């Protein structure tokens, strides 16, 4: 593998004609440190764990997906807007491109779940979900319906803290991700994305009860998270997949 490309707070390229657009809103990022050898078997072929100082991470990310749109069309207000919670790993490919690999993505709209699974090989799961805000506390819940394991769940409460003016090296590493690696029909593709620089806040984890990480194949127990962040969100543009 060549050396990974630098971690940059701003996207390294542009997407002039987006293949897919959406907003990510009210995001909670919860991360644990893990050994690269523990997650390497969970990544697609020709992709290895991305590391910082010899450590890689597993993220549990909960948020609102808002107004997903295709090929320049306006975002869909109902089917394109729903809560989502994903379990992700950090990856780098043979071209040095850093990205994420999704082990699971729970969402509350069945049709987008079915399309993403059948058309793009994404591990989406249909779940009963909610996102609720009370002053400076946001709560995210999910309970899996299909395909399973049925009943896999998460309950996350975070208190939003101060704005992060200068993110740390780790905070950039965990959030400044400009693409995803996904294997479809035996071929690994890289789907690039661009968005404005993250507006980040540090956050306090008030509750985290979940088994989504274990259901995604991660060894446990993971212990206390090493990073908890919140963002009000960004608009996102995806380019077409590259080999």
Description:
- The mean pLDDT is 95.
- With 243 residues, the chain is mainly beta.
- It has 4 helices and 12 strands; from the N terminus they run βαββββαβββαβββαβ.
- A 9-stranded mixed β-barrel has the order 1-3-4-5-6-7-8-11-12.
- The radius of gyration is 17 Å and the shape is globular.
- The chain starts with 19 loop residues before the first strand and ends in a 5-residue tail after the last strand.
- Helix content is 11%, strand content 51%.
What fraction of the residues are assigned to beta strands by DSSP? over 45%
The best one-word shape is globular
Q: List the total number of helices.
A: 4
Tell how many strands the DSSP assignment holds.
Answer: 12
Mean pLDDT rating: 95
Order of helices and strands: EHEEEEHEEEHEEEHE
Classification by helices and strands: mainly beta
Low-confidence stretches: none
> What strand line-up does the widest sheet have?
1-3-4-5-6-7-8-11-12
Helix content: 10-25%
CA radius of gyration is: 17 Å
Task: Write a brief caption for the model.
By secondary structure, the chain is mainly β.
């Amino acid at each position: 593998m060549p050396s990974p490309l630098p971690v940059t707070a701003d996207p390294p390229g542009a997407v002039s004609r987006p293949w897919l657009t959406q907003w990510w809103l009210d995001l909670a990022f919860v991360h644990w440190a893990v050994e690269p050898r523990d997650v390497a078997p969970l990544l697609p072929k020709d992709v290895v764990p991305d590391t910082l100082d010899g450590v890689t991470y597993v993220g549990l990310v909960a948020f609102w997906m808002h107004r997903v749109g295709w090929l320049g069309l306006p975002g869909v207000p109902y089917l394109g807007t729903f809560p989502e919670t994903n379990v992700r790993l950090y990856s780098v490919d043979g071209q040095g491109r850093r990205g994420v690999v999704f082990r699971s993505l729970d969402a509350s709209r069945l049709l987008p779940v079915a399309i993403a699974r059948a058309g793009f090989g994404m591990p989406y799961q249909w779940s009963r979900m909610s996102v609720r805000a009370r002053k400076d506390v946001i709560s995210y819940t999910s309970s899996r319906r299909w395909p399973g394991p049925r009943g896999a769940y998460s309950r996350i409460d975070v208190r939003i803290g101060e704005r992060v003016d200068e993110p740390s090296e780790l905070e950039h590493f965990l959030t400044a991700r400009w693409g995803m690696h996904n294997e479809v029909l035996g071929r690994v593709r890289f789907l690039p994305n661009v968005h404005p620089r993250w507006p980040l806040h540090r956050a306090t984890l008030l509750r985290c009860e979940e088994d989504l990480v274990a259901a995604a194949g991660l060894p446990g127990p993971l212990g206390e998270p090493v990073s908890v962040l919140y963002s009000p969100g960004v608009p996102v543009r995806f380019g077409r997949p590259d080999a």
